[in-house]
Amino acid sequence: MELGINKGALISAKRGAVFVAPAKTKPPKPLSQLVISSSNLGAWKNLGHTSESNLPKFNTEGGDPSSLNTWLVDGAKTTYKPTSLSVAIKSIQADVNTLKFIYNGWKDPETGGVNSSLSPASQNVALIILSYDPDLKKQFGVYFAETSIKADGMPDFSGDFVEFGFTASAQSSDAIEAGPNGEQAAFTLLTPDVFDGASLSLDKQSLSLTVGGDDGTVTATVTPESTNVTFESEDESKFTVTSTGAVATIHPVAATTAPVKLKATAGSLEADCDITVAD
Questions:
Q1: Residue-wise pLDDT tens digits, 155-167
Q2: Which of 105, 193, 239, 279 could be cross-linked to 198 through a Cys-Cys bond (beta carbons 3.0 to 4.6 Å apart)?
Q3: Residue 233, Cβ neighbours under 10 Å: how many?
């Protein structure tokens, strides 16, 4: 785990936008093209003007711990209640397309307005909430591959602008890469560097070495090129690693029974290579 002070990662959400797309739509590539003023990027549509006084608000429920006792001891096991995550969003655009989306409605052929039922059905969509700090010229976002959205009720006339609210309930999705232990993800935090066109890749996905044999090398390609790359052995009892710039030298130490990862890190970006060592 590498933590440290990073003043450049302080973001003020002074401006922002919300993008929607069909459920399981991947974020646009490269992410550097996604800015708050983007209108449409492929399947992604900008929801337009949202409330400045009522910014997107996340709500988490559940997850409370419960201690289970046995006849022998108290607190033998801790369990956690299921967790739900939702975000409330307030649009202030009263155009037909926006209101049809929020209220899952349809255009009235006589008036040209938007019709909706008393209990409109929920819709499944992908969502990106994007904030922008104009002072640092940096962005931060949250990507949901699958959410279920539903209007919060009737328009709110009490503020500076009429507001049209909806709540998006997050769902775990196989459209986002699962965790190392098979955990299904529900969202992706889009850090500022991913919007700068930053990328990290290795020239090898796997490497086989022999105890007493030659060292191996793995080379990283990183964008921007000035980004510092660090390498780490997942198990130094099997192999050690030294590096010069973006080139890692791997020295075999002992045989492995399964591949051991060489981990490369550049900012918040990570990549790995499976190292196998034979006797």
A1: 999 999 999 999 9
A2: 193
A3: 19
For residue 6, the model assigns a pLDDT of: 77
**For residues 178 and 185, is the Cβ–Cβ distance under 8 A?**
yes
Question: What's the pLDDT at 193?
Answer: 81
CB 59 within 8 A of CB 160: no
The string of DSSP letters for 143-212 reads EEEEEEEEE-SS-B-SSSS-BEEEEEEE--BTTS---TT-PPBS-EEE-GGGGGT-EEEES-SEEEEETT
Half-sphere CA count of 274, side-chain side, radius 13 A = 7
Q: pTM for this one?
A: 0.73
Q: What is the mean pLDDT of residues 220-236?
A: 87
Is the Cβ–Cβ distance between 15 and 138 less than 8 Å?
no
Residue 188, strand partner residues: 143
Which domains occur in the chain, in start order?
15-196 (2.30.110), 199-278 (2.60.40.1080)
